[in-house]
Design a protein that fits this description.
The complex is a heterodimer.
Chain A (H helix, E strand, L loop, with lengths): L5 E10 L2 E11 L4 E6 L5 H8 L7 E6 L2 E2 L5 H6 L2 E4 L11 H8 L9 H11 L1 H5 L10 H13 L5 E5 L7 H18 L2 E6 L2 H7 L2 E6 L2 E7 H6 L1 H9 L3 H11 L5
Parallel strand pairs in A: 3-8, 3-9, 6-7, 7-8
Antiparallel strand pairs in A: 1-2, 1-4, 4-5, 9-10
Helix pairs in contact in A: 3-6
Chain B lengths: L1 H30 L6 H18 L4 H24 L7 H20 L19 E4 L2 E4 H23 L1 H11 L1 H6 L4 H27 L9 H11 L4 H21 L4 H16 L14
Antiparallel strand pairs in B: 1-2
Helix pairs in contact in B: 1-5, 1-8, 1-9, 1-10, 2-3, 2-4, 2-8, 3-8, 5-6, 5-8, 6-8, 9-10, 9-11, 10-11
Classes of the chains: A alpha/beta, B mainly alpha.
The structure holds adenosine-5'-triphosphate and magnesium ion.
Amino acid sequence: MTGSTLKLSNVESAYGPVKAIRGVSLQVPPGMIVAVLGSNGAGKSTILKTISGMVVPSRGKIEYGAHDITGIDPAAIVRYGISHVPEGRDVFPLLSVRDNLLMGAYTRKNRTEVPRDLEAVFDYLPILKERCAQPAQLLSGGQQQMLAIARAMMASPSLILLDEPSLGLSPKLTIEIFEIIVRVNRERGTTILLVEQNANLALNVADHGYVLENGRIVADDSCERLRAKEDIKEFYLGMRETGIRGERRWKKKKTWR
Amino acid sequence: MHFLQQVINGIAQGCIYGLIAIGFVLIYKATETVSFVQGELMMLGAFLGLVLITVLGIPYWLAVPATLLAMMAFGFLVERVAISPILGEPAFSIVMLTLGIGYVARGAVMMIPELGTELQVLPVPYRDQSVAIGGLIIGMERLVVPAVTAALCLMLYLMFRFTRIGVAMQAASQSQSAAYYMGIPVRRLNGLVWGMAAGVAAIAGLLLAPIVMIDSNMGFIGLKAFPAAVVGGMASLPGAVVGGVTIGVIESLAGYLLPEGFKDVAAYVVVLIMLMVRPNGLFGGEVRKKV
Ligand SMILES: Nc1ncnc2c1ncn2[C@@H]1O[C@H](COP(=O)(O)OP(=O)(O)OP(=O)(O)O)[C@@H](O)[C@H]1O
Ligand SMILES: [Mg+2]
C-alpha cells in the first residue's frame, strides 16, 4: 500500500464565531508517523476533523496526493484512503464487535476482501476476535480503543488519523496500544497522523512533530529535536501527571453534534 | 365467545396501530425527531391503492406493490425535501412541520372530487371471506392483518440484523458522528428510513381499508398509534407492535365491557398507566451509552 502526502495549507476552521485553528500548514509524508501536540482546546481534534471532512474549513486547502479534498464529503475522504479514529473511541455501543468492524468497511468497493481483512485485523488485535459477538459497550475502555482502531483499519486506509488513543487508559494499556500502532505503521505501511496529550510517548514513536497552541502551529521539527527543546520539555514532558489529567479530561469531553 | 371475538378484533386493530407506530419508531431512532404525519401517510397509502384499483382498474396484486413503492418514494422525498433541511432545529419545529404536511395531505385528498369526500370501499380479493374456528367466525379482512404484520416484522428484523444497510441504519442511530466517520451516508439513510416508515404506513392503510372503509380522516388513527410507540418504549420496533396490540385489545375490550366512551380514551389511559409504572416503556430497557 503506497500512500500519498497529506498537505494542509493555511487551513482555518471555526465553530460559529469560535476560531479553533488558524493558518495551519502541515505535511504528512507517506509511511511516516507524524504527531500533533498541544494542550486542551489547542485545536488538535479540529485539525483531524477538518481533514476528515467533519468540519468544513473557512479558509485554506487540504490535499491528499493529487486530490483536493478541502471540504468534501466525509464518505469521499474515507474512499480516498483516510480513516479517522475519533477522540473518545465513539464505537457503536449496541452493535457487536463484528458489526462495528463491518461498518468500518462500509465504503469498501470490493466486498469479497472484507472477510480476509477482518482476519488481518484480528491478527493485530486478537482480543477482538474473542469478543466478536459481544456488543461493543461491554468492552473495557482499552478494548474499545482497540476496536476503534481496528474499525478504522477495516476501511483499508493509507492514512489513519488517530485522536488521543491513550485517553483514559492505564500506562500499560497505552503502551500496548502504541505498540500496535507502530506495528501497523511498519508492517502495513499505513501513514499515521497522531494527536496526543501524552507528548513523551508521542515523541518517542513519531518521526515528526508539530506543536499547536491556540489554534496555531508554534513549532515543527523532527521528534528527536523536539524532545531536546527546552520549552517543549517544560510544557509537555516535564510537569505531567497522566493519571489525574486523564480523569480530568474525561469529564471535559464534548460530544459531537 | 363474544369476548374472544372482541380480542381478535382488538388484535387486528392493534396491529394497525403497531404498523403505524413502527414508522414513529423508525424515524425517532434515525433522527431523534417525532413525525406526526404517519397517520396521514397511512391514509394516502389507502387512497392511492383505491385510485389504482377503482379508477385505473389495475388488479389488486399489482396495485399493492405499486402503492408500496410509490409511498416509499414519497416518504423518501418528504424527508429529503422538507425534513432534512431543518434537522437540528428544535424538535418542536419538526413536529409542527410534520403536522403541517399532514394537514396538506388531508386537504389535498379532500379536493379530489367524489373520492375525497365520501366513504370509499377498497375492493380486496378476500372481501366477504371468513374462517370458522371452533364456533367463531372470523372475517378474512381481520385475519390477514396479524399475518401480514408478523411477516413484515420478520422482514424488518432480518433486514436490520443481517443486511449491510440495515446494520448501517442501526449504527447511525447509535452514533451519528461515528457513522459519518465511517463514511456511512447518514443523510441518504434518513431518507430511506422515511421511505420505509411510509411504506409500512401504506401497508397499514391497505390492511385497514377493508375493515373501516376509506375516508380522508382515517389518518387520525395515528393519534392512537403514537401511544402504542410510547408504550413500547419509543425506540423499540418489537415494542411498537406489542404496544399497538396491547392498546388495540384493551380498547376493544373496553368497548365491549365498559360503558360508552371508555373505548376512545382507553389508549391514553394505557399510556398514562405505563408512564407511571414503567416510564421507559415496555421495551425501553436498553441503555444507550456514549463513551
Ligand atoms: N463542537 C464545537 N462547538 C464549538 N466549539 C468547539 C467545538 N469543538 C471544539 N470547539 C472549540 O474549538 C477549540 C479547539 O477544540 P479542539 O477540540 O480541536 O481542541 P483539542 O486540542 O482537541 O482539545 P482536547 O485536548 O481537549 O481534545 C476549543 O476552544 C473548543 O472549545
Ligand atoms: Mg481533542
